[in-house]
Specification:
Elements lengths: L3 E4 L4 E4 L7 E6 L10 H19 L3 E6 L6 H10 L3 H18 L15 H13 L3 E3 L5 E3 L15 H11 L13 E6 L2 H5 L11 E3 L1 H16 L5 E7 L3 H16 L5 E7 L2 E3 L2 E2 L10 H6 L4 H9 L7 E3 L1 H24 L8 H19 L4 H20 L6 H13 L8 E5 L11 H4 L15 H20 L3 H13 L2 E6 L2 E6 L3
Parallel strand pairs: 3-4, 3-9, 9-10, 11-13
Antiparallel strand pairs: 1-2, 5-6, 6-7, 7-8, 11-12, 14-16, 15-16
Helix pairs in contact: 2-3, 4-7, 7-8, 10-11, 11-13, 12-13, 12-14, 16-17
The structure holds zinc ion (ZN).
Length: 512
Amino acid sequence: MSLQLYNTLSRAVEPFEPLAPGRVSLYTCGPTVYNFAHIGNFRTFLFEDLLRRWLEASGYDVFHVMNLTDVDDKTIKGAAEAGAPLRQHVEQYITAFQEDRHYLRIRDASAYPRATDFIPSMVRLVQGLIERGIAYRGDDGSVYFAIARFPAYGRLSRLDTRELRAGASERVSADEYAKEDARDFALWKAAKPEDEAVGAAWDAPFGRGRPGWHLECSAMALDLLKDKWGGDVLDIHAGGVDLIFPHHEDEIAQSCAFTGEEQFARYWMHGEFLTLSGTKMSKRFGNILTARDLQVEGVDAGAVRLLIFNTHYRQKLDWSDEALDAAREGSRRLGEFRDRVMKAAGAGGSEDAAFAEAAAGFRRDFTAALDDDLNAPRGLAALFGFAREGNRLLDEGRVPGRGALDALALADAVLDVMPSGTTRLEITGAGSGAAGGTAAEASGVVELPQVPPPGGDRAAMDAWALAWAGRRREAKLARDYAEADRIRERLRAAGYDVRDGRSGVEIVRLTV
Ligand SMILES: [Zn+2]
């Protein structure tokens, strides 16, 4: 079986066939940079990262564009409140987004176009639509797309006219009288004093103003695709399910009316919502969890990715503390298995036949799962199965080799759910102070050496570090913070990072 993907356009799983062999153009709607992106936004970006990584693992050359929406109502409002020019105000959120993306190991897109850098392309697109008689200038000076003159409208969202009218009047413009039809949406919004105040207005033949959000994506996608490979049709366009209507429907209308092509993208893929302990995340309810909250809490990105990928991208996902704890444990177990394999792998690449067979079985199941509309939960199950079987073989003294290492490298290239190149040793002493090492060591009865035991024996070093972590915990309980800090420095010097996790102390080996 080759790659099959669910296409929102046909509401069916279809074999994936790119326009040109060996390469894929992928456009994904990026963040609106008015705030820190929350974990719901990142669920979508992680689904797209999985898609991108699986396409690459399957041998495709992927041209991936993710836009940054730096001009819209929210960014303009934020800039006005901060009393800063728009471009300057959003800079901090662009930096934050890139930092969060790196933390979550989301691969770099080929391009991150900023909307305000593409105003001339947007003006050209609007002008073209006016010339084709599909867009018109409303009484309020804004330019609208005439849905009645584009018969294919509604093909993606499959909403009937009544629903379209309700959606359009709610989301597109407050002034219905400026438009010929309530369903019409704004391509270009006439400049208002508040736009001018933050530098969010540009001259155009059809009047000074700023682009509508939908227009931004069409213009940037068409522009960058033309530059890269030529052509007006994308292979895949992806985003969250909330973007199907009106955003993606409008992107299709603008782009196809402009290019004359029947399609804007051949495959439309949408990731489902994330809820937080059963409720949809929203500012209104104050239940927002950002990527940086997780980073500050010391949550490893591997665990976040594991939690997200453990639910298929087309299913709703509920984020909870319990799910996160389970993901951390799962990620830790996989990391431990990887470490064991790396340590035990035969020097000459020789491999025990049973190991080679287990690795080949994993690759087969994993590939079949991902080819089946990116079934990451099944891919993860295959990985855990391989870890179980592999651990058993290691216990028997069987030697892993090239096959096992390649299998783990594939898992890392696609899912990347293991801890960040470290071995995590968790101590959960629950307040007794007897955490790690033997009780005698932890209670300070035995003299502990200041430096790790010589010889570089991993197990002996870990035991030494665990014992000192126990001492540090005791020092903290006795409010001897100076001693606790000294111990932390001593551990750092030996390559261990000690942190206060939620369930006791955890130490992380920094260098492998
Ligand atoms: Zn978009």
